Amino acid sequence: MRTKICDMLEIRYPIIQGAMGWIATAELVSAVSNAGGLGIISPLTDRGIKEEIKKTKDLTKNPFGVNLPIWSPNAKEIVEEVVKERVSVVTASGGNPKKFTSTLKKEGINVMQVVTKVEHAKRAEDAGVDAIIMMGAEAGGLVGGDEITTFTLVPSAVDAVKIPVIAAGGIADARGFLAALMLGAQGVQIGTRFIATEECIAHKNFKNAIIDARDDSTTVIGKDTLPARVIKNDFSTKMEAIFDMDGVRSALMDGDIKNGVMLCGQTAGMIKEIKKVKDVINDIITDGKKIISDFDM
Ligand SMILES: Cc1cc2nc3c(=O)[nH]c(=O)nc-3n(C[C@H](O)[C@H](O)[C@H](O)COP(=O)(O)O)c2cc1C
Fold first, then answer.
1. Using 50, 70 and 90 to split pLDDT, how confident is the model at 239?
2. How far is the centre of ligand 1, averaged over its atoms, from the C-alpha of 19 (Å)?
3. Three-class SS state of 183
4. What is the atom index within ligand 1 of the atom nearest the CA of 264?
C-alpha cells in the first residue's frame, strides 16, 4: 500500500489526517503519525501553534505537518514557526498558493495545497507546490462553492496536473481509500472519521452526533458566502446561518450540538463506532488488502 506520497512524506501509509480547527491537536496528530499516517496540526487550537508542535514532538518521532490557513492574519507567524521548528510538511488552504510556497520550498518544506476545483489545482501547481489535496463537496468544513464531488474532482485533477493528487472528502474506510487510489490519487486526506476516535479531543456530544448521523444528516450552510458542510441542527436551519470560528468551537469543544456550527462530512452517516486512531488506520489497510485479494481477475 505504498505510493509516491509515502516516499515524499516519509510515511508508511498514504493516509493523511486533515487539519481541523480546535481539534487537530497533538493528541490526534501524534496518534495518526505513530500509526503510520501523517497527522496535521491545526494552528487554530486553544494551546496555539507553538505548544502543539512542542507537544507533538514529545509524543511522536514520526513526521507530522502543520496547516497554514493562508487567509489567517497570523499566517506569517505560522510560517516562521514551521521554519523554526523544521516541520517537514505544510498543508496550505484558503488562499493564494503564491503567497508562501516559495518561502517554504526554500526551507526544504513540502507544500500541499488544499483546493476544491481543477482551475485552483493548476494554479497551485504553477506556484510550485509539491502535491494537491483535492477536496470534494462530501467533506466536512469549508467546501467549494461549486459543490463538485470527490468522484469527479480527483480524476479530473489527475488529468490536469503532473504533481501527485491526494483525495479528500467522503473517505472513511478501506472502500473509499481504494476507490480514491483507483481514481488516480496517490493518497487520501481524512477528517470526519478521525473525529470519532478515542484520541480526538472533540466533546463527546459531537462524537455521539457523528455516530447517530445518517446519510442525510448534513447540509451546506452559507452557500452564497462561505459554504461549509455541517450536521443539521437548530443553528443550520436559520436563514442567516454562517460559518464562524466561535460557533465551531462551541460545537466541538463545549458540545453545543443544538446551536453550534457542527462542521462535519457526509461520512458521518457511515461511522458507527468510536475507535482508536490505530484501528482506523489498520482497518483501512487490512480491509483494503482483503478487498483486493477477493477480486478474481
Ligand atoms: C471539524 C472540521 C474542521 C476542519 N477544519 C479545517 C481547517 O481548519 N483547515 C483545513 O484546511 N481543513 C479543515 N477541515 C477539512 C479537513 O481537513 C478534511 O480535508 C476534510 O474533513 C476531509 O473530508 P471528510 O470530512 O469527508 O473526511 C475541517 C473539517 C472538519 C470536519
1. confident
2. 6
3. coil
4. 31
**CB-side neighbour CA atoms (13 Å) of 64:** 32
Helix (H, G, I), strand (E, B) or coil at 8: helix
Q: What does the pLDDT read at residue 1? A: 81
* Nearest C-alpha neighbor of 178 from the set 210, 194, 154: 154
Distance, CA of 33 to CA of 65 (rounded, Å): 10
Domain at 4-200: CATH code: 3.20.20.70
> Residue 170: left (phi > 0), alpha (psi -120 to 50), or beta?
left
Phi, psi dihedrals of residue 210, rounded to the nearest 5°: -65, -45
Q: Say how far residue 192 (Cα) sits from the centre of its chain.
A: 8
Q: Which three cell numbers stand for residue 239?
A: 436563514
Q: Is 67 in the pocket of ligand 1 (CB under 6 A)?
A: yes
The residue contributing the CA closest to ligand 1 atom 7 is 20
Does the beta carbon of 280 sit less than 6 angstroms from any atom of ligand 1? no
CB of 168 sitting under 6 A from ligand 1: yes
| Rounded average pLDDT over 112-117 | 98
Over the chain, what is the mean pLDDT?
97
Query: Mind listing the pLDDT tens digit for each residue in 57-66?
Result: 999 999 999 9
| pTM for this entry | 0.98
Residue type, 205: N
| 284 Cβ inside 6 Å of ligand 1 | no
Let me know if 237 is exposed, middle or buried by CB neighbors in 10 A (0-12, 13-18, 19+): exposed
Helix, strand, or coil (residue 227): coil
Q: What phi and psi values does residue 147 have, to the nearest 5 degrees?
A: 50, 50
Q: Are 263 and 140 in contact (CB under 8 A)?
A: yes
C-alpha cell at 266: 457526509
Q: Is 116 in the pocket of ligand 1 (CB under 6 A)?
A: no
In 3D space, the residue among 166, 150, 123 whose CA is nearest the CA of residue 8 turns out to be 166
CA distance 253 to 213: 19
